[in-house]
Structures are given as structure tokens and as C-alpha cells.
Design goal:
Radius of gyration: 17 Å
Largest sheet: 6 strands, mixed
Number of helices: 1
Helix content: under 10%
Order of helices and strands: EEEEHEEEEEEE
Strand content: 15-25%
Mean pLDDT: 81
């Protein structure tokens, strides 16, 4: 019987566009179910009411924390503005999350923030947010260089006055910030000012 290479067999098959193969078909463990390396990505987005209730959750799919993972948040999001430098080191744990928020957010948000920054968490519904690891872009919310008007998407699954959570089928960020962005493709809406699971890695069906 001839062996047929497949994703999940523990052997990286470049001809099949595999960039990793950890011998299983499970995502969110550093190597996705489709054998793609999983780096940090945006897993939750808050653009709430009041002008300052803003936060993003960065998920770490890897089982091994490292300098480009959760250490000091590892990677830095920016909203069309120069990248800020983390001022302290938040928790470091495998498969953890890291939260950036606006320091003027309500207590329910600030209490779960790993890093607070006006320079980072100052977007509105029409701002693109880009996540960098070193000099490499690994995920983007929105479309770089494009003004959508007031929001991307259509309410309730839009980037204005909403809490959005990444779907469970997504474990790799969208590193192409110039492609069209429709939040309904990879995100679900939880409503306005929903902060119930901050600090806990979760996803939406």
C-alpha cells in the first residue's frame, strides 16, 4: 500500500504548502489544522460607546511563549499611528491572550488590560488596526489606506460601537492589509459594550 502524504502526519510537505506539521489536525496549538504556522493574531475587538472604551485581544496559539509571542505582548498593534513601546511585561503563559486598552476605558476593561496606551488604543470604527511582530505584519482589522466612511461591515457585525470576536475557524491572522475587509467573514458581533470575557481566550462558532 502506497503512503499518501497528508496534513497531520508529522512530516512537513512543502509541495502541499505546509509550513508546519505537528502530527495532529488541531488548531490553536502553534500549527493549524491545515498545517500553517500560527502566530499571534487579533481575537477580540472592542470599539464601545463613550469614545474611550477601546481594546483589542491578541491571542497566542503557541504552546511555547517566546519573544515574538506573549512576552511583553510580543507584538504591537497600531491604528494608523506609530507603534508604541510596551511599558511593562504582562502575564506570560502558553495559549494565553494579551489585552491592549485605552487607559480611559471603564473599569471593567482596565481591570483586564495587560497594557494601557492612548497611542495604541485610540481608533474609531473607520481606523485600520495592524498587528506587527518585529517588522512583519501578521494581522489587520480593516483595510490599510482605505477610508470606509464610518465603519467596515454592516451593523451589528461592523467595526463601529461593537465588540467583535474572532470565529473559532480562524487561528491565523490576515497579514494582507490591502485586501478588502468584511468583518462578517471572520468575526461575530457580541453587541455594544460587552466586556464579559476579557482576559479569557474564547471564540465564536
Amino acid at each position: 500500500m502506497e503512503y499518501e502524504p497528508r496534513c497531520g502526519d508529522g512530516v512537513i510537505q512543502p509541495a502541499q504548502s505546509e509550513t508546519c506539521d505537528d502530527g495532529n489536525s488541531v488548531s490553536f496549538d502553534g500549527c493549524s489544522a491545515t498545517c500553517r504556522v500560527e502566530t499571534l493574531f487579533f481575537s477580540e475587538y472592542i470599539e464601545g460607546s463613550g469614545g474611550t472604551n477601546k481594546a483589542v485581544e491578541i491571542a497566542n496559539p503557541s504552546l511555547t511563549p517566546g519573544p515574538d509571542r506573549v512576552a511583553r505582548c510580543g507584538c504591537t498593534p497600531t491604528a494608523r499611528r506609530p507603534r508604541a513601546t510596551p511599558s511593562r511585561s504582562p502575564r506570560r503563559s502558553p495559549a494565553a491572550t494579551c489585552w491592549w486598552c485605552n487607559p480611559s476605558s471603564v473599569a471593567a476593561i482596565r481591570g483586564q488590560c495587560d497594557l494601557q496606551s492612548n497611542a495604541v488604543a485610540n481608533w474609531n470604527g473607520d481606523d485600520a488596526i495592524e498587528l506587527f511582530c518585529g517588522s512583519a505584519s501578521v494581522d489587520v482589522i480593516g483595510q490599510l489606506g482605505v477610508d470606509p466612511g464610518v465603519e467596515w461591515g454592516t451593523a451589528p457585525t461592523s467595526t463601529l460601537d461593537q465588540t467583535l470576536r474572532r470565529k473559532c475557524s480562524v487561528s491565523v491572522g490576515d497579514a494582507n492589509g490591502t485586501n478588502a475587509f468584511n468583518p462578517a467573514t471572520e468575526w461575530t458581533s457580541l453587541g455594544t459594550n460587552v466586556f464579559t470575557d476579557l482576559g479569557v481566550r474564547s471564540c465564536s462558532p
